[in-house]
């Protein structure tokens, strides 16, 4: 007898770790406007391993859940975190939600409506005379460390034969 197909297309059945439905958490996080997708991070540190299944971008611990995302360009990190936490908090059983912004999408040149145009700019630099490869920095001014002479009151008289700090004479 064949039963109904597992929910959310997971052939191994529901992905649940310590009472946290990972499929629901992934769906909720991906639904956030500031999130492009979930990702395991540069070294694959945020992944849940289950028999026959890997869930990149979510790791469940006893007291917290780590969610690693690729955020959308020009969205402030605080807004991104607020969206993700609001979406997943009810799904994680009272655990703290830690967010890792592992990557950002490429800049599209479009400015989101909530961001002023002067806040988003490209990181181009100008060079003298428009010559490619020329330094765009101001001329370098060499600096010299000035070491003041020791104070006669603060340094001991090393030429005296008597104890340090005692006047001789």
CATH architecture of the domain at 13-107: 2-Layer Sandwich
Class of secondary structure makeup: alpha+beta
Q: What is the helix tally? A: 2
**What is the CATH class name of the domain at 13-107?**
Alpha Beta
Radius of gyration, whole Å: 30 Å
Biggest pleated-sheet summary: 4 strands, mixed
Number of strands: 8
Low-confidence stretches: 1-9, 113-127
What's the overall geometry?
A: elongated
The helix fraction, in percent, is 10-25%
Percent of residues in beta strands? Answer: 15-25%
Mean pLDDT: 75
Secondary structure: elements and pairs:
Blueprint: E1 16-17, E2 20-21, H1 22-30, E3 35-38, E4 47-50, E5 53-56, E6 58-60, E7 64-71, H2 77-88, E8 96-104
Helix pairs in contact: 1-2
Q: Can you walk me through this structure?
A:
It is a single chain. This protein is an alpha+beta fold and about 170 residues long. The chain has a domain of about 100 residues: Alpha-Beta Plaits (2-Layer Sandwich). Helix content is about 10%, strand content about 20%. Strands 3, 6, 7 and 8 form a four-stranded mixed sheet that branches. The protein has a two-stranded antiparallel sheet with strand order 1-2. Strands 4-5 form a two-stranded antiparallel sheet. A hairpin with a 2-residue loop joins strand 4 and strand 5. Helix 1 packs antiparallel against helix 2.
């Amino acid at each position: 007898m064949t039963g109904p197909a597992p929910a959310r297309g997971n052939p191994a059945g529901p992905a649940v770790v310590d009472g946290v439905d990972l499929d629901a958490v992934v769906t909720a996080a991906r639904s956030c406007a500031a999130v492009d997708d979930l990702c395991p991070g540069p070294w694959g540190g945020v992944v849940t391993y289950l028999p026959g299944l890997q869930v990149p971008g979510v790791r469940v611990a006893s007291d917290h859940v780590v969610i690693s995302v690729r955020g959308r360009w020009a969205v402030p990190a605080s807004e991104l975190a607020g969206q993700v936490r609001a979406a997943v908090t009810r799904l994680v059983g009272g655990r703290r939600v830690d967010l890792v912004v592992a990557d950002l999408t490429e800049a599209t040149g479009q400015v989101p409506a909530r961001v002023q145009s002067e806040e988003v700019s490209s990181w181009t630099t100008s060079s003298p005379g428009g010559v490619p490869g020329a330094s765009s920095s101001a001329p370098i001014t060499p600096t010299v460390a000035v070491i003041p002479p020791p104070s006669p009151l603060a340094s001991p008289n090393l030429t005296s034969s008597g104890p340090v700090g005692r006047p001789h004479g």
